[in-house]
């Protein structure tokens, strides 16, 4: 019998790519999304249009629903696995709405875990955590400018931070705390109640399905400004800060592999790794090559608890899932984003 997987936040960037990955591999999907991203960021950020494609697809049963609704538990009870992506996803936005951030990210996740524990305890579960659970810890290391980016002074960090980095006793933003709390709850449910849950601490996830705003999804936001000619603000570090970027489709492929072969309670750092790392300054050149447009920018004050340098050490995830690999390089990622944004801008004009 065909297995059915629940994707929470199914309209979102990562959720919509998970829906696509699952149906391409023979699964049925139940998707739940309340389009709350539109409330958090305004119309520009609303992900609703991502679901138009699959409303007529028999393999996807989409519900406009909040994960905090009581009806949601009935869905949890009926499926064979879960990918939980629904969240308030922005660390700067969380500073303005700490209570809503907590309510979605912590209470929403705990409610989901309770529904799994009491009604469907044997199914695998993927939790989308974040490198923001480490708070400012990456900033406690020393970096030097090498070309247009920072690099760590300590060579042992070359391939990035692994899962042993400390998560507490530093500044996080409310988002970092709500995700760390949910991350620990998921780990606890795996250890205490034997739930087959895996925790993925993500770097920068992106792709054409993103509905970017200044406070979330920097890559498509930068491309959007390059296409429209608006000026970008760079918050701190003069653009030398480094991020590691992964296409949401590559991540969705990893999540499917986890559902098929779960490692309960394991925590993984996952992003683009060293190969898909890029500084903001380096991204300006790539965006210019891909779009043909120059990005105008000015400098602004550094954001709270913003990482100076982050690369995810992918050793553990590769050890546990040796057949998984990143298939989208940086150029392909920025090309995919540019194609999607050009289409959207054409439709609007
Ligand atoms: N995109 C990244 O770079 C990144 C990095 C680290 C972690 N993450 C994590 O991955 C997950 C998904 O991120 P994303 O980039 O796809 O975000 P997204 O905003 O594109 O998707 C989240 C979706 O969840 C929905 N949602 C929000 N609250 C909801 C609720 N209460 N009930 C039902 N649906 C709700 C939103 O409408 C949205 O469609 C989040 O948990 C986020 O913290 C993302």
Automatic annotation (TrEMBL):
It comes from the Archaea. Belongs to the NAD(P)-dependent epimerase/dehydratase family. This is UDP-glucose 4-epimerase. Residues 5-271 form the NAD-dependent epimerase/dehydratase domain. Gene3D superfamilies: NAD(P)-binding Rossmann-like Domain. It comes from Halovivax ruber (strain DSM 18193 / JCM 13892 / XH-70). Pfam families: Epimerase (PF01370).
